[in-house]
Amino acid sequence: MTRFDAIWLDAGGVLVLPDPTVLGPLLAYFGGSPDIDRHRRAHYAAMAVKSAQGAGELDWREYDEAYVASVGVPSADVAVAAETLGRTRTALLWRWPIPESVEALATLDAAGVPLGVVSNAAGQIAAVHFPGVDRRRIAYVGDSVTMDIGGATAAGLHPILVDPYDDHPDAPFETIRSLADLRG
Questions:
Q1: Rounded mean pLDDT of 41-64?
Q2: Which value, to the nearest 10 degrees, does the dihedral of the CA atoms of residues 55, 60, 62, 67 take?
Q3: How far apart are CA 181 and CA 108, in angstroms?
Q4: Where are the domains of the chain?
Q5: Which is deepest, 83, 87, 121, 146, by most CB within 10 Å?
């Protein structure tokens, strides 16, 4: 069913997104669109900016500014809307399941593919031992070049970036549009 012996997944951006049903009305106050698809797009656009800046797990300033701009907040209000987004973002907000990922997980699970969630693997998985397993046959799927691709590469895993809008057309690593691309 898949070319990997196991697939590990980052949660944010692969399985769930910041809840657009919460962020839509919040950012509409600043002129942003409440459209769910715009918010889905905004996450990946913002992650591309965050990755291009080399921003780590604790630095979300570039993400916030790119996110609010992507949903259509006028440039004059981007700073205050980004500050509001930054103050609003909590771990509890990362709860909106990506429909394609839910379907793909069910298919991969039914095929018997071992799955795991290793969120924010910024290299610490390099010390994990895998007796008898070729690390290159374990895929690590994430949405951050800096944290996920960098962490998977450091651990000797096969890095794959979820890039549904082709924000990384010249990536020197594998990209997929959705988790569904791993089913075949």
A1: 92
A2: 130
A3: 11
A4: 6-14+97-182, 18-91
A5: 121
